[in-house]
Amino acid sequence: MAPSSYVPNRLVFSYVLDWIAIIGIAAIGLGFREASPNHRPFSPVDPDISFPFVEHEKISTGLLVLISTIIPAILTASIALVFTPKLSTARGTSILKTWKYKLWEWNVAWMGLALGLATTFFFVEGLKKLIGKPRPDLLSRCDLDPATVQQYAVGGEGSQLPLWNLLVSYTACRQPDRSKLDAGFVSFPSGHASFSFAGMSYLALFLCSKFSISIPYLLPYPYKAQKGNAAVDLSTWDPVIGGDISDQPMTNCAPVPLRDQAAAPPAYLFILPLLPITLATYVAGTRYSDFRHHGFDILFGATMGTVISWTSFRLYHMPIRRGAGWSWGPRSASRAFGTRFGNQGYVKERIVESRDLEAGEDSRHAHSASSSEP
């Protein structure tokens, strides 16, 4: 019987819950953002926080959202809908089935991006408000009165210390704009560096995956690939269990010399991941030149954004060198909301079970029977 468009409702609902969870993480981060930060005591003669306050930042918050969120979202969706599956891959495959793969690739492309950005937002805002580190331009924001500064001394001997050893409370500041003053105590980590590297690193990984931009590697089976159409046939191939057909062992084939088993991609393709990383580096660099963050704040933020984006990418996408550009497939319907101890992962043996995205009419009873498994 021909495949139908049946998709188990429990599977669809489980991914709706995934999106709700991602939004929830971002909502908690928004709550952190609205909270008042910790105000760490500071020295009124510290040169590291004596830089001038720059009114007009090179990269505004709105421009940061465009760079870290909107641009990656548009590009990943466009690539998922246009380039996957390839035309040669989809030859002989029904239009409905081809669009299932396209829409699934689009969904997981955005899920990975959204999870990375939401998690970054959560940690950035939480750490900013918890630590309360002064910005390099804090004294310009604070507007201290030198005549009364010793009255606000905190810690140690207090006002008995000489001025260069004195730590004072933020209450010594005469700044009438409380929001401007509070913003002077959120230097660590750099939000611009974190978000730009989270969004742009994810985009770079996505481009490397879809356009096969990776360091050459040796295949586990040193045999020649089968001749004929090298594209994967979607009518019989599942991206979750299929992998790259060149990775499959071939029988009755002569071994291939090591140097002939792989080759470097065209050099011009490296421009694709280089552009987003360069843009993220520029955004992070402006935070130093605008006196908004210390060097360590920027480096930590960039590292955190990169690590989170890599983790969110790998949750939804196969390894770049071995995944042939595909994402991981959906969970099994019977394990859509979790799995019990002793089960391996969230996908049952798809070789012997009907696929969740391609279940036929005669497989609906199998789905309903398997749904009782925790």
Automatic annotation (TrEMBL):
It is found in: Membrane. The keyword Membrane applies. One of its GO terms (cellular component) is membrane. One of its GO terms (biological process) is phospholipid metabolic process. Keywords: Membrane, Transmembrane, Transmembrane helix. GO terms for molecular function: phosphatidate phosphatase activity. It is a multi-pass membrane protein. Residues 110-318 form the Phosphatidic acid phosphatase type 2/haloperoxidase domain. The chain crosses the membrane at residues 12-32, 59-83, 104-124, 195-219, 267-286, 298-316. Its main location: membrane. Residues 354-365 have a biased composition (Basic and acidic residues). It comes from the Eukaryota. Residues 354-374 are annotated as: Disordered. PANTHER family: LIPID PHOSPHATE PHOSPHATASE (PTHR10165), PAP2 DOMAIN PROTEIN (AFU_ORTHOLOGUE AFUA_1G09730) (PTHR10165:SF154). Belongs to the PA-phosphatase related phosphoesterase family. This is Phosphatidic acid phosphatase type 2/haloperoxidase domain-containing protein. It comes from Cladonia borealis.
